[in-house]
Amino acid sequence: MSLSAEEKNRYARHFTLPEVGSEGQEKLKASSVLCIGAGGLGSPVALYLAAAGVGQIGIVDDDKVEASNLQRQIIHGESWIGKSKLESAKARLLEINPHIEVVTIPAKFTAENAMVIAKDYDVIIDGTDNFPTRYLSNDVSFLLKKPNIYGSIFRFEGQMSVFAPHLGGPCYRCMLPEPPDPGTVPSCAEAGVLGVLPGIIGSLQAMEAIKLLLGAGKPPLGKLTHYDALNTEFRTFNLKKDPQCPLCGDNPTVTVLIDYEDFCGTKPPESMTEISVTELKKKLDNGLDGLLIDVRMPAEHAECSISGSKLIPLPTVADAASDLPKDQPLYIHCKAGMRSAKACAILAGLGFSQLVNIEGGMDAWLEEIEGS
Ligand SMILES: [Zn+2]
After folding, report:
1. What is the CATH number of domain 31-263?
2. What is the pTM of this model?
3. What's the pLDDT tens digit per position in 237-286?
4. How far, in Å, CA of 77 to CA of 305, rounded?
5. C-alpha of residue 246 to centroid of ligand 1, in Å
6. Rounded Cα–Cα distance for residues 372 and 368 (Å)
7. Mean pLDDT calculated for residue range 92-98
8. What spacing in Å lies between the alpha carbon of 124 and ligand 1's midpoint?
9. Measured in angstroms, how far is the CA atom of residue 257 from the centroid of ligand 1?
10. Strand 157-163's sheet: what is its strand order?
11. 3-state SS, residue 340
12. CA 183 to CA 186: how far, in whole Å?
């Protein structure tokens, strides 16, 4: 794919690198990367890939920009709060580089749509923040024989690797055969994350994508890079391919995409029902026939809460369960409805059967009931 005079000028610093040059730059222009998520990791990934001239960048996301994203999701800005993350990302990327194409895929990345979405991209970047999508990203990449560039972050620590068994080395399942029990690994919302951290891990992911597209250097196959920000330490661990791996091992049992929510134990239990915040308000006005539980973190609860709710942060739900009544409904809410569904899954596993998830959580309550 030939470059215009304007593009040649734009990429001048790449042209002097023997590993890139005009040939490499044309390769980048002809290539495509799928970024799953336009959040903390997706931001630096997409910004650097766009700036570097990767011809087509696809982004899958179905979220809106929130004020609390801006501390780390640097692709978005103040004027986009409340609007689509995809549209925000696209506008920013084309502002950086109008010579690229940005494909927006306004959806959750699921087992139903993943193969169709991912099949035409050269490289897949896992910028997700949850286990079901991480396993899905791994499996779909393996089945399509495409590199999966993995990154994850937690508080002040992050890790990154490239999983591409078709090029050698293990897959994500070789490293983590079983997902952790739901609720035992807190999310960024629960545990916190220093905003620079996804910038560093996402930049490492962008670098690996560009190396793969150029065929420059060596991808870290079978190597996990771990970054500890508080001690300023990068360490590399060797990862072995597991011959028993259900996906890339000798006798694979996972040969098509599976139900990842089920696999990770995050599927809403059958005993869980859902009601809207309007229905909850009616019930509260008439005297609630059960217990209202807030599973957000104490700081979130202190900022705003529904009157009469009992605070049981998600990481402590299993421990607190023995004090909860089994003979009346438990109305459970969080910020948006995800963590409360997880809490329902945990409680269902402990024998609770009257579980009611509040759709849309505190966000919906503030918008629809308190009108702010
Ligand atoms: Zn494997």
Report:
1. 3.40.50.720
2. 0.85
3. 999 999 999 999 999 999 999 999 889 887 778 888 999 999 999 999 99
4. 27
5. 7
6. 8
7. 98
8. 17
9. 14
10. 101-105, 56-60, 32-36, 123-126, 148-154, 157-163, 223-228, 233-238
11. helix
12. 6
